[in-house]
Amino acid sequence: MNVELVEGSGGVFEIDVAGKRIFSKKSLGRFPAYQEIPTLIATS
Predict the structure, then answer these.
(1) Degrees to nearest 5, angle at CA 1 with 39 and 14
(2) How far apart are CA 24 and CA 14, in angstroms?
(3) Terminus-to-terminus CA distance in the chain, angstroms?
(4) Could you give the CA distance from residue 7 to residue 39 in angstroms, rounded to a whole number?
(5) pLDDT at position 11
(6) Apex CA 36: angle with CA 34 and CA 41, to 5°?
(7) What is the Cα–Cα distance from 29 to 1, expressed in whole angstroms?
(8) Contact (CB, 8 A) for 2 and 17
(9) Residue 16 sits in which domain range?
(10) pLDDT of residue 23
């Protein structure tokens, strides 16, 4: 798995795996919970 950090603006925090967005702070209005991102990656 390759990880890339892309600088953005406006407080946007989004996680994409294989071109599919698995988490978006902008659309959910919150940061991910503890272990939420690893769980989302494992199930995508």
Answers:
(1) 55
(2) 4
(3) 13
(4) 24
(5) 83
(6) 140
(7) 27
(8) no
(9) 1-44
(10) 95
Tokens representing 25 are 């702070």
Domain count, the chain: 1
Instruction: Report yes or no on whether pTM surpasses 0.90.
Output: no
> pLDDT (tens digit, 9 = 90+) per residue, 4-40?
888 888 888 999 998 899 999 999 999 999 999 999 9
Identity of the amino acid at 38 = P
Report the C-alpha gap between 18 and 29 in whole angstroms: 23
CA distances from 12 to 1, 22, 23 (A): 22, 14, 11
Q: What length is written for the chain?
A: 44
Rounded to an integer, what is the distance from CA 38 to the centroid of its chain?
Answer: 10
